[in-house]
Amino acid sequence: MSTPPLASGPHGPDALRPLLDTVLHALHAGTAARGGPLPAGGPDAVTARVRDAAGDVLPDTGDPDALRTLVTALTEGAADPAHPLCAAHLHGPPLAVATAADLAASVLNPSLDSWDQAPAASALETLVTHALARETGAADALVTTGGTESNQLALLLAREAAGGTLRLVHGANAHHSLPRAAWLLGLPAPVVVPAPTGTLDPAALDEALDQVPGPHLVAATAGTTDAGLIDPLPEIADRCAAHGARLHIDAAYGAGLLFSDRHRPKLTGLDAAHTVALDLHKLGWQPIAAGLLTVKNPDDLTALDQRADYLNAHDDTEAGLPDLLGRSPRTSRRPDILKIAVTLKTLGRDGLGALVDRVCDLAQQFADLVTGHPGFELHAPPTISTVLFRPTDATDHTVATIRRTLLTTGRAALGRARADGRLWLKATLLNPRTRPDDLADLLHLVEGNTPR
Ligand SMILES: *Cc1c(COP(=O)(O)O)cnc(C)c1O
């Protein structure tokens, strides 16, 4: 076999063109073969089809058809967030323009651990992270792999600012990555503040801050994963200020509301946080990964300073080469900023805001359908784009079974969430191209799969 072509360089685009054609055809064929939001048949059937398609995964002699075969198989077996009945998770359909930009990122393969691997990408990252930081009232922002890494970094920066240890205080509604980050960083077990209505209770927070010795990092949530609820940020910020506690806001889901004039007021208080987690692969329509951690005090970032002679020698830095190693705990790092920058500039604030408004409207429309149907119960009016609902008088077992039946038949992907001591079906509406008819179909499908 001759040396396979490379993606970049003078011949890169010519080598890529026919391969892209293969990929696009395979995406078409796989989507048609699936015919719905998910593959039918459940895990065993999907695994069998993938095993058949993959064959010998490391054959002695290569297979030139592997790109077509494997992309087709992956597409056929995908949970496709662009299908209107795929609404289980904060798993959004990426915009075509962002995905095209991500192709260029893969082709050029800049690595953001040193300037000599990413001259323009690092300059673009500086511009865009600063602009996004300003949106949350912060001074700077780091690019992360998502809310999980952002939360962990927020804890790390807080721990270092506090002199080596601190106590995490979070709501019972917080994302699991927060207590996990405390565990990873060797911090004491977090204090969990009750969230009886689904949001952190400021009075209970006050009590916890009084009782448990500090220093504290309070983590609030703007957009809970289960219900899209936003903690009372201004009250929490006041309590933190009164107790000298540091505040992190996990806005992995909710931060996208900043793009919408209509919904931005829901995030009032966000600018009081020392750090904010944002996930643009949720309400931002980016391919994974597109996370950010904004940081109010840039001095906090010195905790990440790191020296490695081959990447940021003192004399290189003194001679003016930007030092990038302290911008992440990772070393090699993809230019996720390119797709973000392309999206922000292509759509503008108006375009992104319209997408946010659209999915929030869809959630309201779905909630109205649920309310208007005697066979269903709505948990609460949606705050962002998540709707919790269940068949009236169903048991938790029935709710869980409906969800699994829809998943394994490949008809619809809904999530599940526990609230008020009961299990609910969760529709997370992130697809701006979903139509009102699709929402009616979704409810109809659930109705048809509810045993009576
Ligand atoms: C999704 C989510 C996370 C985790 O983000 P990843 O991008 O999956 O790492 C953290 N917090 C909240 C509130 C989330 O919704």
Automatic annotation (TrEMBL):
<keyword id="KW-0210">Decarboxylase</keyword>
<comment type="similarity">
    <text>Belongs to the group II decarboxylase family.</text>
</comment>
<dbReference type="Pfam" id="PF00282">
    <property type="entry name" value="Pyridoxal_deC"/>
</dbReference>
<dbReference type="InterPro" id="IPR015422">
    <property type="entry name" value="PyrdxlP-dep_Trfase_small"/>
</dbReference>
<keyword id="KW-0456">Lyase</keyword>
<dbReference type="InterPro" id="IPR015421">
    <property type="entry name" value="PyrdxlP-dep_Trfase_major"/>
</dbReference>
<dbReference type="InterPro" id="IPR002129">
    <property type="entry name" value="PyrdxlP-dep_de-COase"/>
</dbReference>
<protein>
    <submittedName>
        <fullName>Pyridoxal phosphate-dependent decarboxylase family protein</fullName>
    </submittedName>
</protein>
<dbReference type="InterPro" id="IPR015424">
    <property type="entry name" value="PyrdxlP-dep_Trfase"/>
</dbReference>
<keyword id="KW-0663">Pyridoxal phosphate</keyword>
